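User: Structure tokens for both sequences below?

Assistant:
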Amino acid sequence: SHELHEFHEFSRLVNPFSCQFVSFVAGFRRHCVSPAIDSRAIQPYNAAHAQPEAGGGYLPDARASAATLLLIGGAVMFPRTNIENLSVSRLMIGTNWLLGYSHTSKAQDRFIRETVDAARVADILEVALKAGVDTLYGMRPEGKLVEGIAEAQHRTGRKVITVAIPTLPTGGDAGSLGEAERILDQYAALGVSVCMPHQATTDAFVNRKTRSLAGIEPLLALIRSRGMLPGLSTHMPETPVYADATGLDVATYIQIYNAAGFLMQIEVDWVHRMIWNARQPVITIKPLAAGRLPPLVGLAFSWATLREKDMVCVGVLTPYEAEEVIELSLALLERRPPRVELQETRSKASLK
């Protein structure tokens, strides 16, 4: 919506973790509330007023100590960061668990593909959008994604910001570049905001001898010329280092980052230092190690060890998981107990 877009633009001026954030609320009302929105719907969110939603879900209990969030049209606005001039939510919704890439087993992949349809995608994104988690990582021209996004936007009146990771040809000849143009035109037509050549493309250019990604520049230029922000999706920790050192035109990059070291090529502490030294904001993926870490454990590590400008991308399979991930993340960022219902088994009866 127009109102949310203007909030995104305004949010670039303000660090949501600053204690000065509340003082901008009045200015924000004057700056961007259109006559179509009742200004009473925009207010600091007070934990004392947190109530269960109809259907059993909880809106996050956002205390005004570490971060005061805003309610816009009844939705909590999750903390945000910027990729160049684009405002995005620091928590991103991943697509592996929507499309059937579980990193667990073929049976799990099949279950996801047979279970998740456009309606499920819409239900998950509706929960996310209502909490201000409006950024989806892994956009592609697949029917259930396109339809699910459209339905979620229709239900909430809010726009989904999309990040794409297409596989592009690496040949560098006229035919390869022509095919890359065709693919990128398709993504631009989908309204993709950030386009990052997939790891299968990016990492093919990483040269440890020359400490560069020489040859990838034409692909980045094609992305930029189509109005999308270029980035690098990579599984190699060298990629951001070489991109920064050689001045590549990239606005962000990916890193696998989790407490278990799952799929990481080197030790966690080395990747941690690389992220902190990176020039651009980093999108971290696989924070729960594809289900090998409990959400509280994986998210606690990520939010505690990243910079305020970095992002965490989490895949979920249900709206309930989306609610849980969002609330756990807010609780960890605000250093308060999470308002989530714990799983119950008979062995825990003695703890009640």
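Moving on to the next sequence.
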Amino acid sequence: MFDLFGMVGKIRQDLYIIYGPLLLGAFIYMTLTVIVVLLFRYLDPVCPSSEADPMIANRSLIEVFAADEAELTAIRRDLHAHPEIGLEEHRTSEIVAGKLAEWGYQVHRGLARTGVVGTLKVGSGGRSIGIRADIDALPIAEATGLDYQSRNAGRMHACGHDGHTTMLLGAAKKLAERRNFDGTIHLIFQPAEENEGGAKIMMDEGLFRLFPCDAALWDGTTIRAGRPASSPSARGRSWRRSMWRASGSSAGAGTARRRTRPSIRWWRGRASSWRCRRWCRATSTRSGPAS
């Protein structure tokens, strides 16, 4: 006699065996996700508590940086008026090094000729992060008519590196003032981003050996040590599909070496190339720099 109830019970048992672990894993994953989101939402390890510093804690970052608006604007316009192309940024690196030293950073100069690295260590933490900005201009004649138009013939900050440099200097000042972190920050001011391969020169000369970083940040992108990454070449004309990684050892030494994973390199190159072309079309009619 056909046992319908027995068959249903067997099917139910099989489903429990097959899908039970999957459902349990999904439940655990969702629970951990909620916990992590709540931790990041309600626990901020960077911003000081209101008890420690109520004046800063209750103000937004915009208000914090507004106090330095006049100084940073003056720096940006001065850099814009005196642009220097790759590996010739002597005046720019002098200004950067002077500001970093004034704010209490240990300053290292000479990587890629005009590169500057400012280091700030707070507390006893062993982790470190690198934050990078480019400092070079382009061989373009400026005709914007601005009060702070380029005074160097055939040179112009047409790509906004004067702004990048100023933003990182503004961050440097606030980090030095507040010191509300535990670890080491390396501020990397890179020359020759446009045409001369300044980043590779700095790495070849020992950037990550001298200043090992657990992660690096530039232009809103964070790359952790050992992770692959790709980047646009000069002025967005093509995309470098080679990938570089910075890796550190337990002794604090680091090296930069090339990745050789064709499948990942090809996929990232295709995706990056599409983003680059879209960006170039959107900015092809871009006007002169704003204030």
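User: Anything stand out in the second?

Assistant: Confidence is low (pLDDT under 50) at residues 44-52, 230-291.
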